[in-house]
Design brief:
By secondary structure, the protein is an alpha/beta fold. Helix content is 45%, strand content 13%. The N and C termini lie far apart (77 Å).
Length: 810
């Protein structure tokens, strides 16, 4: 056996395969070995491209989303998903050797297809042209990868004489040639004097026609490659590796299973592999079963390879291992959006109520003051990247758009745990598992749509057009995963697992398992692992605790609008303020009252900012225009809303005229105040605060029901009185002076109740004192006294929002 492989070049499917071969050669006993040049397919000959030469997929997605927002009348946030799918389609085209610059989409689709396909084609033409203009001197990540793969052809040609002189072996191993760039390199290597292509499986047992195999056959891509280089399967040499089940699986996946199996002459019996099929009731149980199998094998000194076809399955297995204190090398990482730092960023954006425009996302998030560790730096870099993209292309986005963009950026980062050289368990995806094996192989998620996964279906162009362009058929993914299945199933001990339920729905057994069963493999067993997994997965029930919650003392800032929850139904306050739960609106609930109130508040703020002299007709016209933008065209509601506007307009106009004579006046976002009561901060954002003739006035605009005089006198509705107290003590932001007197006002805009209701002098002072006393009483009881947040039955609908959580009907 040679000791010096340093002049050889071996191309392998992945970096993990490179490490495996490197370790295998280094472990040859009794000798030192000069390692060959090991290259993961997709790695460049050298740093041919610098980062500035390549436009990232995330930048292309954001720019394209902005085009879609304008062209398709979508929100920017919803455009991101569509843009991502479109970028994926163009990358598929690039991988298949069909760049967009040579495609006339409108002509290709023509009038033979539905109008929506024609419209999409028109957009594709415009978008392709615009993207080339925006990024004239840059290549995409897919173009870069394909160019780097083909760059090795030029390298091998340039070094041909050296390769011949050193008798170097050039080997491509483990690839099926499904990607054209890889197939080009394989064709070139196959034509070299010392070039070798090592294909997975045993294709020389098959027929001569690719059409006979079908597009889902494991050897479909290999057969296409052989046809390209003019070689028939029978001419492919076999590398003997000892007894193997590959013959059985070739027969099982053929079109004539019975005849092929009988030809093996083994009466359907496996040569040596121990196959075990385990059906689990649900995905969580499957993860526990996998952990039990791996734990048992590792305890017996065996190596274990677990295959998970999806990231969610990988995470479930990770958690099952962690519960047992088991270590493993996981190829799948945690999405940046699911890390503690990622969730903190997204929650910080989600909590902000206003939807203003944001210029610099990175600086805005930096203002949160979040703590981070060194492992979070890739996430911070991803946020910086999208922020720079937004600025570079002068894209205007709102806070809601920013939330979607940041989620996209964080999701693009996978944080992987460290690798351990001495670990006996590997948990890999299907691609990473190529050229890997172990004493025990566990293949999970063997359901249709998962293993095999659903192939790529392109929603932008008709299937026939996609075929004309050379886009891969949906079945190609099935074919590639079939090859993964049969090669991995040749291990000494193989477990196949699946769950009968996933996401609350029934699943269908993988076609791979069906073929194995038809071929005669009986793979029952694994009962001890299944029972152990069930014990872990099914948690013993505990009696529900109906007592009122008693969390640790809460001294966090409380908003003044939440105090009436604490007064009328403490449990609702507990759910809203302490648990931070927001009830989702019922889609069947009538939200017109809320819409009407929000529209009215916004209109008053806009009209107040207008310095022109207004009339009641101007107010009505403005409200009518706002309503038409809010309501569906021709909505019957407009008639009723218009009648309300007519009734409200004089009171609104009187209020606006009053504000024009104020020395200082702020509303909502600028009317923020805070006071300390009994050691706890109470915050507020008033509808309107102003000072006129040294008199401070705080206004609450109400389109619905007003608090009664008795409720205000008893401190049961403390919002407006506490806002008045903030104004009285100079506790609003940028408040210029302390008023000499205080007036509380409700601008009532309810039906048949329009007008201004005022409380001044001793009346206002009494109501402020009552609100302060009630708030102090509450904080003494719940913050200092740690009282239970009991549920109270009330008639107000807003206090019943958490009734289901409180289980009041149990």
């Amino acid at each position: 056996m040679r000791d010096d492989f340093s002049n050889d070049i071996i191309f392998l499917p992945s970096r993990r395969a490179v490490r495996t071969v490197e370790r295998m050669l280094a472990d040859i006993p009794g000798r030192a070995v000069m390692l060959p040049k090991l290259v993961a397919l997709g790695e460049a000959v050298d740093d041919e491209f610098i980062d500035e030469d390549t436009v990232s997929n995330i930048e292309r997605t954001i720019v394209l989303a902005k085009m879609l927002e304008t062209a398709e009348n979508l929100t920017f946030a919803s455009s991101l998903t569509v843009a991502g799918d479109l970028i994926r389609m163009t990358d598929y085209l690039e991988n298949e050797g069909r760049g967009q610059e040579n495609i006339n989409w409108a002509q290709l689709v023509g009038e033979r297809y539905a109008r929506h396909f024609q419209k999409k084609a028109e957009f594709l033409d415009k978008a392709s042209s615009l993207m080339r203009n925006i990024f004239p001197d840059k290549i995409t990540e897919a173009q870069k990868r394909n160019t780097e793969i083909r760059g090795w052809i030029e390298y091998l040609e340039n070094h041909k004489s050296e390769i011949i002189n050193h008798k170097s072996k050039i080997i491509i191993c483990g690839s099926t040639g499904s990607v054209p760039a890889t197939a080009d390199l394989m064709k070139h290597v196959a034509g070299l004097e010392n070039g070798y292509i090592i294909l997975p499986g045993r294709i020389n047992e098959l027929g001569t026609s690719n059409e006979e195999l079908g597009t889902t056959n494991p050897y479909h891509s290999e057969m296409k490659f052989l046809e390209r280089i003019g070689v028939v399967p029978a001419d492919v040499e076999t590398i003997e590796v000892g007894e193997s089940e590959i013959g059985f699986f070739n027969a099982a996946f053929s079109n004539n299973v019975g005849a092929r199996i009988r030809a093996l002459g083994r009466n359907y019996a496996p040569l040596h592999s121990a196959f075990t099929m385990i059906d689990c009731s649900r995905e969580s149980e499957e993860a526990e079963v996998v952990a039990e199998i791996a734990k048992d094998a590792a305890a017996n000194g065996k190596s274990v390879l677990v295959i998970t076809p999806d990231a969610a399955g990988n995470q479930r297995i990770y958690e099952s291992f962690a519960r047992r204190g088991m270590g493993a090398n996981f190829s799948g990482g945690v999405s940046g959006a699911m890390t503690a730092f990622g969730r903190a960023v997204l929650n910080g954006l989600d909590k902000i109520k206003f939807n203003n425009q944001i210029k610099n996302i990175f600086e805005f998030i930096d203002g949160f003051g979040l703590e981070f560790s060194e492992s979070d730096l890739p996430l911070i870099q991803s946020i910086k990247e999208v922020s720079d993209i937004i600025l570079r292309h002068n894209i205007t986005i709102t806070l809601h758009d920013a939330l979607a963009v940041v989620a996209l950026a964080l999701s693009s980062v996978q944080l992987r745990p460290p690798m351990f050289d001495d670990c006996r368990i590997d948990v890999l995806g299907t691609i990473e598992s190529r050229m890997q094996t172990a004493d025990v192989v566990i293949m999970t998620g063997l359901n249709e749509g998962m293993f095999p996964a659903t192939g790529y279906e392109n929603p932008w162009i008709p299937r026939r057009v996609a075929d004309e362009l050379g886009l891969p058929p949906p079945n190609r993914k099935v074919s590639l995963m079939a090859m993964d299945f049969i090669t991995l199933s040749c291990a000494r001990s193989v477990y196949w697992t699946r769950s009968r339920m996933a996401g609350g729905c029934d699943t269908t057994e993988s076609r791979f398992l069906s073929r194995v069963a038809v071929a005669g493999i009986v793979a029952d067993g694994g009962e001890k692992f299944k029972e152990a997994g069930k014990l872990r997965d099914i948690i013993a029930p505990h009696t529900l605790d109906y007592s009122a919650p008693m969390p640790p003392a809460d001294w966090s800032d409380v908003h003044v609008t939440e105090l009436d929850l604490l007064i009328h139904n403490p449990y609702a306050f507990y759910a809203r303020h302490i648990l931070r739960l927001k009830p989702k609106p019922d889609p069947w609930d009538d939200t017109t009252a809320i819409d009407f109130g929000n529209l009215t508040h916004d209109a008053i703020e806009q009209l107040t900012a207008n310095n022109e002299q207004l009339t009641t007709d101007d107010v009505i016209k403005y409200l009518d225009h706002a309503a038409k933008e809010k309501l569906e065209p021709g909505s019957v509601l407009f008639h009723f809303w218009h009648n309300r506007f007519v009734e409200m307009a004089p009171s609104i106009l009187e209020f606006i005229d009053e504000l024009k004579h104020a020395e200082w006046s702020v509303a909502e976002n600028d009317a923020k105040g805070v006071i300390e009561i009994a050691g706890r901060n109470v915050r507020a954002r008033a509808d309107r605060v102003y000072i006129k003739d040294k008199t401070g006035v705080v206004v609450d605009i109400k389109t619905g029901q007003l608090p009664t005089n008795a409720q205000l006198n008893n401190g049961m509705m403390p919002q407006l009185p506490l806002e008045a107290y903030m104004l009285q003590t100079g506790s609003f932001e940028r408040q210029p002076i302390l008023p000499t007197s205080i007036v509380m006002k409700f601008l009532s805009l309810g039906r048949d109740k329009c007008g201004m209701i005022e409380y001044a002098g001793t009346d206002a002072a009494d109501k402020i004192s009552a609100a302060l006393a009630k708030t102090k009483e509450l904080f003494d009881m719940y913050s200092a006294g740690s009282a239970a947040y009991e549920y109270r039955e009330t008639n107000g609908e807003k206090y019943k929002a958490y009734d289901d959580l409180a289980r009041v009907r149990d």
